[in-house]
Specification:
The complex is a heterodimer of chains A (89) and B (145). Chain A has 89 residues and is mainly α. Chain A has one domain. Chain B is mainly alpha-helical. Chain B folds into two domains: 104 residues, no CATH class; 28 residues, no CATH class. Chain B is 59% helix and 0% strand. Chain B contains four helices and no strands. In chain B, helix 3 packs antiparallel against helix 4. Chain B starts with 17 loop residues before the first helix and ends in a 35-residue tail after the last helix. The N terminus of chain B is likely disordered. Classes of the chains: A mainly alpha (89), B mainly alpha (145). Chains A and B meet through helix 1, helix 2 and helix 3 of A and helix 1, helix 3 and helix 4 of B.
């Protein structure tokens, strides 16, 4: 039963990633693209965790944690660059 | 039954009771639906200030559901509690509002001059991120006192 739920969730996350990619390509402003990239990273974290459940390994949690931290830092850096014209003043 | 190693039980189906299995499956399905709804909102909503809502709320909740499912699974399998899922959940739930706030702030400052996509505040002050100055450089009329 868990595997069927996992396949359903894989489908959902894949369609969600495709929609994020559409927004990333289309987005009228730069910030739309930043938001779409951030959402893509969050969806990739979800995909990694679901694959960890499917494969029954706890190997991928560190990579998910690293992705979460790097997406946060990069989004903040991008916003700060757009606001100030510089990341570190 | 306590399994000594995760790798040892990979190929055989572990003994997970039916209620826990239903709970794990429900968490996974709800999480997947929430992630889908978040990206649908990101694609369909009309402007950036509304588009910010969908990923920062629905997608975060969906990933939270997946992480709860993962926590339940490995707690059932190993009988021990992994701190990494809690860390990921904590980090995502902590950073999503900060990211959304920064994006909204950058949007307000980038489109301050030449855009009417910023909604009016209906007071004689502008949005507070622009400082405490009076609302003099925007097009919105001052309300009648």
């Amino acid at each position: 039963m868990i595997s069927y739920a996992l396949y359903f969730a894989f489908g959902c996350v894949s369609v969600a990633l495709a929609m994020n990619l559409w927004r990333l390509a289309k987005g009228p402003t730069v910030l739309d693209r930043v938001l779409a990239g951030d959402t893509m990273v969050v969806n990739a974290i979800a995909l990694i965790i679901l694959y960890g459940i499917l494969d029954l390994t706890t190997l991928f949690f560190e990579s998910a944690l690293l992705l979460a931290m790097f997406s946060f830092v990069s989004t903040i850096a991008y916003c700060r660059f757009l606001l100030r014209g510089d990341v570190i003043e | 039954m306590k399994t000594p190693d995760v790798i040892a039980v990979v190929k055989d189906l572990p003994p997970i009771s039916l209620t826990v299995e239903i709970a794990i499956s429900a968490c996974i399905i709800i999480g997947g639906i929430f992630i889908f709804i978040g990206s649908l909102g990101l694609l369909k909503l009309p402007n950036l200030m509304t588009r910010l809502h969908a990923p920062s709320k629905a997608t975060t909740l969906g990933v939270g559901g997946c992480l709860v499912a993962s926590m339940l699974t490995f707690w059932q399998l190993n009988g021990e509690f992994h701190i990494q899922e809690v860390l990921i959940t904590f980090f995502l739930f902590l950073t999503a509002p900060v990211t959304a706030h920064f994006l909204a702030k950058a949007h307000l400052h980038l489109h301050r001059r030449h855009d009417n996509s910023i909604p009016p505040t209906d007071t004689d002050h502008h949005w507070s991120t622009f400082g405490t100055t009076l609302n003099q450089d925007s097009a919105q009329p001052k309300p009648q006192r």
